[in-house]
Amino acid sequence: MTRRWWNSAAKWVYRSEKGFGHCPAHWIAEENLRLSSSPSNDPEDIETNEDALNTIATELHRIADAMTPVQPSVGFGPAPKQVMHVHCDRRHGGFWYTLDPQNNPIVIEQEALTGYIRSLEFKASIDQGEKVYTLYTTLEADNFYVLESLSTADFSKGLLSAIAVLTPEQLQQPITVVPQILSASEDVLYCQVYQGDYLVVAPYDEQTDMRQVSKTAINGVKMATSVSLDRPSLT
Questions:
Q1: pLDDT band per the 50, 70, 90 thresholds, residue 41
Q2: What is the pTM of this model?
């Protein structure tokens, strides 16, 4: 079997009758020994062997460096991502808004938000003497965005229904959240979810068991964030 060695895309490969594949480490050692012990008086062969040995040594150093644990960076660097809370309702005329330090609303003009979903959770609070639940949906993009909506709102129902029909693998890809209204005078805010150009179709009605839908959506997000497939790091 003839082996010809070269570096392609930072991976050692070999050519044989069986095609291409990754080079096992012991083959590198064998080739190293063979090249170093094979006598040759041909200057061209000697130069070729030296080049091969240098290339192999460089690759072994690269592999060793890659296996060295990466230490957390210290010193100066970029600031951590900010967290922006986004209220999703029609209270101030728009689709969603944030609050400034004085709690004054700032309407968000953009019609969609795209990011990686990181968490779904419900939190209880007391509003005018009654216990209410708010859905907190965290998306990671250029910042962390926490979408806040009442658990009983159609926005929450549409968002949860769409997330519930996506697989954990799909939830590791960016989603786009788009608030919707039926008419300009409509106070009810709905929610559509896209993945790329694909609209996630997830109808619901008064008979839908939203408690079960919520559990499915939350479990799907937990699975997506606990097992990383090809999700890129945004930090």
A1: low
A2: 0.65
